[in-house]
Amino acid sequence: MPKFVIEREIPDAGQLSQQELAGISQKSCDVLHQLGPQVQWVQSYVTDNKVYCIYIAPDRESIIKHAEMGGFPADSVAEVRNIIDPTTAEHHAGSGESPDAAGGATI
To answer: What is the Cα–Cα distance from 13 to 7, expressed in whole angstroms?
Structure first.
């Protein structure tokens, strides 16, 4: 099932108390329960003025529906196309090719 990154613009998100974050989390869980098991919240990252959420869902529309039902912003919804980490470079190291030579992107 596809994975999505949702960007939520929330002014002063980084200043929210643990109690406020718990309330937002509970609201999200309540909506997820209503939507059924096909939409799953994986994790969220809170920054100063935005929250970045990782969800698994059948489609973008399910993410938008969750946001609307919960009253959450969903300023950007992007489907994850690939996942990389430091071990990605290790797999290429044995091939004798640089990532650029193999058609990889430079980040």
So the answer is: 12
Mean pLDDT of the chain: 90
pLDDT digits (tens, 9 = 90+) for 22-37: 999 999 999 999 999 9
E strand map for the chain: 3-9, 40-46, 50-56, 76-79
Length of the chain: 107
Within 8 A by CB and 6+ apart from 95, the residues are: 102
The answer to whether 54 touches 2, Cβ cutoff 8 Å, is no
Cβ(60)–Cβ(1) below 8 Å: no
Sheet with strand 40-46: strands edge to edge: 40-46, 50-56, 3-9, 76-79
| CA-based nearest residue to 89, from 78, 80, 102 | 102
One-letter amino acid of 38: Q
What residues form DSSP beta bridges with 45? 52
pTM of the entire predicted model: 0.81
